[in-house]
Amino acid sequence: MDITTKSGQRIRQVIGGRSNVYLLTAGTRALLIDTGRTSRFGRLVSRLDRLKIDRIDAILLTHTHFDHAENTAALSERYGAKIVVQEQEAGALKTGDSRLPRGSILVTRWLMPRISPWLQPRVAYRPASPYLLVRETMGLRALGFEATVLHAPGHSPGSVSLIVDDQIALVGDTLLGTLPRSVFPPFADDPVEMVRSWGRLLRTGCTLFLPGHGWPITRDRLERQYAKHRRAIPLTEP
Ligand SMILES: [Zn+2]
């Protein structure tokens, strides 16, 4: 994937598969969105080499779950990148012990309480220190990007999306891109809040939504899914 936005910024998928890592570039400035699993570190670095990236200005974590954050410390050191994260996820990043999410559908609601005690200590990762903390929204112009970080809680309390040129949104696990019929993630601490965050995303001008897992989601598709899930759960618009 290689998208050039209205203002000439570029969004490329650096690695895919289990967890997506994206790169936003604006001239010589580079921002990495999520960092993936340690098992993919070598591949990630070789892809960045191929893209001729030897310095990264900042790393934005859509949230601090292990499959998005394991390489944060190593990449931050290697490329001199400052880490940006929502304030409610900062503690988890500093300890490398982000809580596993709750299940949001029948099977995962059953599964998570049973496996979390066993799994939780196995998903600890190398801690890292955040540089910038996002609260509700944060423009990244000071870092050289026409992009805004938007708090989009629900999958985790401090999940964020990156809105690039009011055109493309990088949404982490707020939306799932692996299934043909649904974008509803099977894990979320607060599914109602997550669907509210979908509404927040739809109030931007974005036409394409890039998830942390799977393939891009069109605005049409998100609108249909939002209408369906809004009916299914009680929502009061803030
Ligand atoms: Zn997650």
Describe this protein's structure.
By secondary structure, the protein is α/β, with parallel strands linked by helices. It has a single domain (2-232), classed as Metallo-beta-lactamase, Chain A (4-Layer Sandwich), CATH 3.60.15.10. It has helices spanning 41-50, 66-69, 72-79, 90-95, 106-119, 191-202, 219-232, and strands at residues 2-4, 10-15, 21-26, 29-33, 58-60, 82-86, 132-134, 137-139, 147-151, 160-164, 168-172, 208-211, 217-218. α6 runs antiparallel to α7. The longest helix is centred in the middle third of the chain and has 14 residues, at 106-119. The radius of gyration is 17 Å and the shape is globular. The model has no long low-confidence stretch (mean pLDDT 95). It binds zinc ion.
- The CATH class designation is Alpha Beta
- Named CATH topology: Metallo-beta-lactamase, Chain A
Low-confidence stretches: none
- Report the order of strands and helices: EEEEHEHHEHHEEEEEHEEH
Bound molecules: zinc ion
Radius of gyration: 17 Å
CATH superfamily: Ribonuclease Z/Hydroxyacylglutathione hydrolase-like
Based on the structure given, which CATH architecture is correct? 4-Layer Sandwich
The helix tally amounts to 7
Which percent bin holds the helix content? 25-40%
Bin the strand percentage. Answer: 15-25%
* Average pLDDT: 95
> How many structural domains does the protein architecture include?
1
Distance between the termini: 35 Å
**What structural class is derived from the secondary structure elements?**
alpha/beta
Oligomer: single chain
